[in-house]
Write a structure and sequence with these properties.
With about 150 residues, the chain is an all-alpha fold. About 60% of the residues lie in helices and about 0% in strands.
Length: about 150
């Protein structure tokens, strides 16, 4: 069984407590300028091997739920809040470290959850409130399950 550190556990618990983030960075590819042969070659960047975890699919779903809740909460509250996006960003930063592909998948899931409801609800309605409550409950369940099964 794989475990994750107390920082991740704390972030998931924080998410769980909140139940009771994110923009995608786009990498620009540019051609490297020709190098002068007299210049020293820069060392190759360190590539960190991606290490899938048994709870990755649950984290992806949690990211999608957080994106949905972030959109719906901001749609239905008077003062915009950034708590959900910040929590997601912290989770992504701690969980993925230098694993770019995992980071991209989690960010994409958050954005997918956000956009799904943005395409359906433009004003706060009773169904939007119900959806937000259900998604918060699902997020709390996912966070509890991840901690119970994979926490240390």
């Amino acid at each position: 069984m794989m475990t994750f550190g107390p920082t991740i556990t704390r972030l998931i618990v924080t998410t769980l407590l909140l139940a009771t983030a994110a923009t995608t960075a786009v990498a620009q590819k540019t051609a490297a300028p020709p190098q002068d042969k007299t210049q020293a070659q820069a060392p190759a960047p360190v590539v960190v091997e991606e290490k899938p975890t048994p709870y990755d699919q649950r984290l992806i779903r949690l990211a999608e739920v957080l994106g949905s809740v972030h959109y719906l909460r901001n749609l239905c509250v008077k003062e915009p809040e950034d708590v959900w996006r910040r929590s997601m960003q912290e989770l992504i930063d701690k969980e993925t470290a230098n694993e770019e592909k995992r980071r991209e998948r989690m960010t994409a899931a958050f954005n997918r959850g956000y956009r799904t409801f943005a395409s359906v609800y433009t004003t706060c309605t009773q169904p939007a409130i119900v959806a937000e409550q259900r998604y918060r409950a699902e997020g709390a369940t996912l966070a509890s399950e991840i901690v119970a099964r994979f926490g240390n």
